[in-house]
Amino acid sequence: MERPETIQAYLDAVGEQIRWKRARPVVARELEQHLTDQRDAFTAEGNDPEVAERMAVEEMGDPVSVGTALDRVHRPRPQWGMLAAMAVSLCGWLALRLFERYGVSYFPEYIWRFDAIALLACGVAAAMYFLDYTWLGRKPLLLAVPLLCLPFFQSVLEVTKDYTYQIGTYTTLLVPLALALAIYALRDRGTAGLALCCVLGLLPVAACMAAEEPFGMGMLWSCLLCNTALLAYGQRRGLFGSKRRNWLLVAGYGLAVLACLAVVMRHTGYWSVLWELPEWMTCHRDRIRDIVGHAKFLGMAEVSAEVREYLRLALRLGGYENQLLVLLGSFGWAAFLLAQAPMAVLLGTGWRTCRRQTSELGRLVSVSILLTLTWQAGANVLQNFVPVSNLLTAYPYPLLTDGGTALVIDCALLGLLLSVFRGSSIARDTIRSQTVQTTQKLSEQPRDRKHFWLFC
Fold this sequence. Notes:
Elements: H1 7-15, H2 23-44, H3 49-60, H4 63-73, H5 80-101, H6 107-129, H7 140-149, E1 159-160, E2 164-165, H8 167-170, H9 175-186, H10 190-201, H11 203-209, H12 215-236, H13 244-268, H14 270-275, H15 279-294, H16 305-317, H17 323-331, H18 333-354, H19 360-384, H20 404-422, H21 434-444
């Protein structure tokens, strides 16, 4: 192969060795910057521009060797464990839905509906997975503001077929992601940027204040925990500076949401419920104690005839409020834990992988998604063993309990999360990218390329 003498020819030769097309423009941009700086350095020494460019290209080394080394660095990183756990969860969701409806007269009507929802969830997850997530960082504030305003239209965004799909209610699961984009857009703006993020984070809170139960309270809890944690994470990362008053702003946001939550609880009567349970909640509390106290490792719990009938009916009717409790009473602790194992794998692997992200956009997006899913899962488990229904969350357990719209949105979030992890090697806002590190190593090695791979 003839050695290139110009920067563009060198970039073309290196790009031919990189099989991942998404990585080629990123590598070319960073490599071009490195070559341009080297050419300018040679020009400053008194060399002719054309000679300086040729010297810079020669200094970089063999383009095939460099491109091969960069190809090994910049490859998609599919998280096979997370993908497998997600596939198992989707199959489990479909199996549970069909099991719940099996034997009823209208069972055939549910087969196509559940299959369609599962296929739609798979399609959305795949679309987000192969998406270049960095486009979210091009106009982040333009995306964040409409998403943060979605709760105002939650009663309008509904589709009624044979069943009412409350799209508006469940799109509020995107609020933490929207706040993460706002934080990314306003980073490096100091205290003013953080204050604007807090104001934007209060938009869904204002919508929840006027919402009917169960949406309002569940969303307020989500804002209190997820959004406050996101703001604290951004401040901890130093995105808004290190001023002490910034932490006061984060604390002020949390206190404001907590005050709104107290107002909603008082207005809806939940405040008094916390001190004195009504009769139906007392019965449900006794039912919970009976199921948990007599649950087996495997098999139906040895409970009273009344509770056994409750389990039978709840298993057939589906829903999501107490479905984990019903799963425990009907099949035992083994089934209860096994059903949640895929989500535990997804969250555990996700949080561990998130720490290795070098892109600030990738970090914020992945943290927001993981906070949302962790909150959904944790609040659902806790709510199943607390007699106050819908006090903690209005969302089903992700990828397990009933709720087709929530399933599609959760799959979209997981697909985006896996897209972040998949493209972590071509993050665009890193300070010192792997491309520059690798090319510098190659340029520093001896002219004899026999053992070039030792430096990759």
